[in-house]
Amino acid sequence: MSIIWTRRVIIKASLLFNFCALTYVALHASNTSISVSDSELKSSEPVCPVGYTETLTSNGKTCTIPERNTDAVSEAEVDTDPNTTYQDVVSIDPLVTEKPPTPLFTCEGKSSEFRYGQRGSQYILYNYIRAKRQFKCDESITLTTHGDTSFLDNLVVLSQRWQGPISVSVYVPSSDYDDAIKIISYLRQCTVPEIEDFVTFHFVFDNRHMPKSILKLHTTQQGLPYFESQTKVRTSDGKTIVKVTYHGDKNGKTELPTANCSLPAPWGSPPKQTYRNQKKLLYPVNVLRNVARESATTYYVFASDSELYPSPNIIPQFFDMLRRNESYLNLGKHRLFALPIFEVYSNQTVPDSKQELVKMLESGMAIPFHKKICASCHSIPRQKEWLKAPVKEGLSVFHVGKRHKPHHNWEPIFIGTREDPLYDERLSWEGRRDKMTQGYALCILDYDFMILDNAFLVHRPGVKVNKKDPVIGLISQKQNAYIKSTIVPELKVLYGSRPECWL
User: Fold this and answer.
1) DSSP structure class, residue 274
2) Is the entire prediction scored with pTM above 0.90?
3) What is the Rg, in whole angstroms, of the alpha carbon atoms belonging to the chain?
């Protein structure tokens, strides 16, 4: 009994001791936390957030929002790169906490910096003359096109109707390079502001027909910047002389030449014969198409020809359509957005709306594209129904078609993405059927063609007719045989085959 009583006393004493110890520690910690000097109190005042101004008052320090001068930009806010324009400078307000809208899709950005390249025998000057405005991958649609110097005047109308980024590959063998520089300088300085704002030029020339020299429009085209250094040295006879050492490229970075806007446009009428025509060089159309398309900084691209003028407002209407129908963004299904194409007679103007277009077709002033050359090559599925369909506001998908019979020869012009198959660079423009192999690949890959209802293309005024040229005919025969004997078997190995796909 005494043993049990002793154990109880020991347990109670232990509990009492632990309680006292814990109480002592708590009181000591409390006294420490409030024992702070005046200087420590002052230093513990909160630091003002970035973008606010600290002001000392009788009540201590306060944080106020400074007045913002929106009319001036400090040197610290401006990129000093000479290639950077004011349009490139984005003002980021650190005080704004509002979240940006959720993007329609995700994509990776792409550089628009100048670089050299080579594709077979062709040298490439990528982004050689850059547009002032640059776009992120999800901000717009890039119209990609091509031409030699005789086609560049189309950019005046094209840029005004597109109102968005345009990527142009220009074929400039030998002296055509100099003519291209003169024409582009005139276009940028003497015509419409959209040229300088939206159009980026890439130069392409054959290594067998090099320009005599090229302008160094970018610092990356040279080694060290040019400068001189002077050092005093003593000669063997005791004289002191100044030694001058030259470093880098003496010519340095240059600018486009200043155009004389009081003179007639340098492309003239009729246009000057190009070096390409004089030497009867084949036009590497698919090299040019691929260079322009792969240089686009936006995810969506519209690969077209420079003489095809789009109906206005396609870009905002297209993105509005995607917002209303986000199922179009389902990446599990290959799809493209095709536009019907028409042409008008030379004494007519290009229509701005579908209503105008339909009236011109009814009066015979407009016809389907290439009706007199290859009607099946550009006839869209359900074209008659497209013309009769009521015009609605905005943009929608009129019909989902395939490149199957009777449309197996269809050469669609479409809004696609950077991920779609490229054009075969072994084919020339003179050989014809240069887009057919891409269309065949799209068919095998089971692409859907979403035909847009209120968007269309119209060729530069003037209806084309079939002109027989024995030289072109021979080139066309050889290219067609090459397509069937070589390219088609390659495509079947790459993508397989479908019985409904023909070439």
Assistant:
1) P
2) no
3) 34
| Backbone φ/ψ region at 361: left (φ over 0), alpha (ψ -120 to 50), beta | alpha
Which strands make up the sheet holding 300-303, listed edge to edge?
A: 115-119, 122-129, 199-206, 166-171, 141-147, 300-303, 413-417, 335-339, 448-452, 397-401
pLDDT at position 86 is 30
User: Which residues contact residue 150 at a Cβ distance below 8 angstroms, ignoring those fewer than 6 apart?
Assistant: 267, 271, 272, 274
| Residue among 327, 325, 331, 358 at smallest CA distance from 344 | 358
Mean pLDDT comparison of 18-27, 61-70, 321-330, highest-scoring range: 321-330
For 278-336, the pLDDT digits (tens) are 999 999 999 999 999 999 999 999 999 999 999 999 999 999 999 888 766 665 678 99
3-state secondary structure string, 175-244?
Answer: CHHHHHHHHHHHHHHHCCHHHHHHEEEEEEEECCCCCCCCCCCCHHHCCCCCEEEEEEEECCCCCEEEEE
CB 151, CB 306: distance < 8 Å: yes
Strand runs (DSSP E) across 22-72, as ranges?
53-57, 60-64
First to last CA, the chain: 109
Nearest-angstrom CA–CA distance, 464 and 454: 24
Tell me the C-alpha distance between 18 and 20, whole Å: 5
Task: Please tell me whether the peptide bond between 406 and the residue prior to it is cis, using omega within 30 degrees of 0.
Answer: yes
DSSP helix, strand, coil percent of the chain (3-state; round to 5): 35, 20, 50
Percent residues over pLDDT 70 in the chain:
73
Average pLDDT value for residue range 459-486: 89
pLDDT single digits (tens) 392-416: 888 999 999 998 888 888 889 999 9
Token reading at 110: 């792409």
At 86, which amino acid appears?
Answer: Y
